């Protein structure tokens, strides 16, 4: 880990952070697993998924592990070259998410995106407005998903305005859904250079494409989603809560 | 680029209404072995534009005996599913380009990765 570790978007040479730090790989790995969990795909069903900002394919590997087929899209040829060298199973596409998803309607059963969405929030000299790019991204993504499919985004929000901007454009594009906030992990194990920074606040935004009004906002009571959300609420309240595992919310055998 | 992905790719250039299917010009094609999952293939079939798949297979020289029309009751036809599996997941275009049928705009493919980046005026 380098000194004064900032989030990747603050530095010009952001590629280094994800590619060769074993700690970042570990974090990415955890986030990918979490994202996949939040996708709530039916068990035992191989699905066709989209990984937005797939980079070197770290998150894609998790999709492959779960038996899914995936397409990854990223703007960086350097990162995609690493993915090729790592021989990832997913098909890779070079593209800019702010220009829209180049796929036919109803293509994907789900979408994950790890640490990519915040790139759309930065206005660089070449681009037009972040809201426009965000909307272009979300609206084309929405259409490329099958009905009822979910898109799960893991992001490091800079501030609440950024979060609001993202949410607003996603909703405008038709997504309903909510925010799951994972609080920073303890600074155990980090060296003194990075201890003050810790692990950045993470936010998982899970947007579900839905045409049914009653699916907006809260989850149906007693479903796995509801259980996960309730556990998050209780964690925020500072209560002791069991870790989320694959057994969470699983159907139990009927008891006599 | 697998033909499954190709079947889903469209041109998203501003102003283009019929940017699908993209015409394949392949200079290098690779065939590899991918584990056959009949359930997955069966589920993908309804999502496919069948004629575009047939056209693509032909363009890369791997049409073989793939039927030009979808067979009814394909879910139980293992032989058919295997043919579809081969064309969808085992044939990859490594080098070449994709051409928009409406505008003629070409998207190059390099190392199996199609370049869908748009210019300023196209976005």
Automatic annotation (TrEMBL), chain A:
Domain Methyltransferase type: 50-123
Bias-annotated ranges (Basic and acidic residues): 222-231, 238-247
Sorted UniProt keywords: Cytoplasm, Methyltransferase, Nucleus, S-adenosyl-L-methionine, Transferase
Stretches assigned to the 18S rRNA (guanine(1575)-N(7))-methyltransferase Bud23 C-terminal domain: 188-254
This protein's GO CC annotations: cytoplasm; nucleolus
Domain of life: Eukaryota
Catalytic activity line of the entry: a guanosine in 18S rRNA + S-adenosyl-L-methionine = an N(7)-methylguanosine in 18S rRNA + S-adenosyl-L-homocysteine
GO MF annotations, alphabetized: rRNA (guanine) methyltransferase activity
Biased composition (Basic residues): 212-221
Compartments, record wording: Cytoplasm; Nucleus
Region (Disordered): 212-256
Gene Ontology biological process terms, A to Z: rRNA (guanine-N7)-methylation
Subunit structure of this chain's protein: Heterodimer with TRMT112; this heterodimerization is necessary for the metabolic stability and activity of the catalytic subunit BUD23. Interacts with GRIP1.
Family: Belongs to the class I-like SAM-binding methyltransferase superfamily. BUD23/WBSCR22 family.
Protein name: 18S rRNA (guanine-N(7))-methyltransferase
Originating organism: Scleropages formosus
TrEMBL record, chain B:
A biological process from GO: rRNA (guanine-N7)-methylation
GO molecular function: protein heterodimerization activity
Family: Belongs to the TRM112 family.
Protein name, entry field: Multifunctional methyltransferase subunit TRM112-like protein
Pfam entry (one): Trm112p
Annotated coiled-coil segments of the chain: none
Subcellular location: Cytoplasm, Perinuclear region; Nucleus, Nucleoplasm
Gene designation: TRMT112
Domain of life, per lineage: Eukaryota
GO cellular component: nucleoplasm; perinuclear region of cytoplasm
CDD domains attached to this UniProt entry: Trm112-like
Swiss-Prot/TrEMBL keywords: Cytoplasm, Nucleus
Stretch forming the signal peptide: none
């Amino acid at each position: 880990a380098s000194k004064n570790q900032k989030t990747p978007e603050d530095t010009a040479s952001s590629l280094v952070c994800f590619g060769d730090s074993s700690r970042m790989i570990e974090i990415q790995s955890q986030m990918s697993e979490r994202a996949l969990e939040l996708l709530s795909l039916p068990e035992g069903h191989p699905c066709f998924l989209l990984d937005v900002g797939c980079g070197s394919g770290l998150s894609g590997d998790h999709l492959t592990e779960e038996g899914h087929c995936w397409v990854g899209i990223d703007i960086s040829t350097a990162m995609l070259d690493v993915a090729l060298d790592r021989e990832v199973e997913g098909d890779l596409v070079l593209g800019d998410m702010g220009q829209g998803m180049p796929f036919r309607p109803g293509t994907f059963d789900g979408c994950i995106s790890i640490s990519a969405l915040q790139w759309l929030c930065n206005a660089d000299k070449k681009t037009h407005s972040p809201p426009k790019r965000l909307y272009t991204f979300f609206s084309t993504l929405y259409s490329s998903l099958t009905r009822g499919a979910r898109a799960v985004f893991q992001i490091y929000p800079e501030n609440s305005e950024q979060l609001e901007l993202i949410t607003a454009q996603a909703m405008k594009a038709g997504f309903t859904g909510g925010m799951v906030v994972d609080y920073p992990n303890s600074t155990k194990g980090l060296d003194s250079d990075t201890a003050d920074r810790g692990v950045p606040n993470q936010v998982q935004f899970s947007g579900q494409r839905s045409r049914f009004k009653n699916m907006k906002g809260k989850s149906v009571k007693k479903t796995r989603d509801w259980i996960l959300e309730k556990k998050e609420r209780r964690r925020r309240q500072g209560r002791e809560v069991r870790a989320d595992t694959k057994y969470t919310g699983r159907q139990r055998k009927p008891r006599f | 680029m697998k033909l499954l992905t190709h079947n889903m790719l469209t041109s998203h250039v501003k102003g283009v209404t019929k940017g699908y299917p993209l015409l394949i010009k392949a200079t290098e094609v690779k065939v590899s072995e991918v584990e056959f999952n009949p359930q997955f293939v069966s589920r993908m079939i309804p999502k496919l534009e069948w004629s575009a798949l047939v056209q693509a297979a032909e363009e890369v020289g791997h049409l073989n005996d793939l039927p030009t029309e979808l067979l009814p009751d394909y879910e139980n036809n293992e032989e058919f599913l295997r043919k579809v599996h081969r064309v969808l997941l085992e044939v990859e275009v490594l080098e070449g380009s994709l051409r928009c049928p409406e505008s003629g705009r070409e998207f190059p493919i390099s190392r199996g990765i199609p370049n869908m980046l748009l210019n300023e005026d196209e976005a």
